[in-house]
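Pipeline run #58 for the internal structure catalog. This entry was flagged by the ingest filter as a single-chain record with no existing model, so it goes straight to prediction. Upstream metadata was stripped on purpose; only the residue string is passed forward. Reviewer on rotation: M.T. Logging verbosity set to normal.
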Amino acid sequence: MNRRLRLNYFKAAAPTARYCAVIFVIAVLIFSGMLFYASHLLDEVSAAVGASPDHPVSLFVQGHLISMAMLVVGGFLLFLMTNLIVLMVIGERIGGPSIAIRAAIAQIKEGDYNIGRQLRPNDELHDIMNDLKDLAKTLGARERGNAK
């Protein structure tokens, strides 16, 4: 990813960054609750199994409980990372075009109605950019008609 693309990504993805932050905070809260509950359950199981006279069975149960807890935690972290990546990709596909659209609007405000900006093929908001180009052509034609 080149420097300009990275800068555009971080400038334009403010809503996405906000969503990522909210998801991250919610995930941390859920993760903390899961860890607290898991540690509480493991303590209860350890106490119950510790009272058992069969030591190899208690080690077997504790080992499997810890493995299950690690699988749940790993699955949750994988889910969190996947969601954050998806949000970043969506933000890049919407954030990049929003920068181009803002630049086109600024160009129209300055009186330059020749918008040559193109969006990338995978970007969203193509309809809005095309409508903005049509608007610029119409305004340019009106201005040239009023100047005569």
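catalog note: The first helix runs from residue 3 to 12.
catalog note: The mean pLDDT is 77.
status: ready for reviewer M.T.
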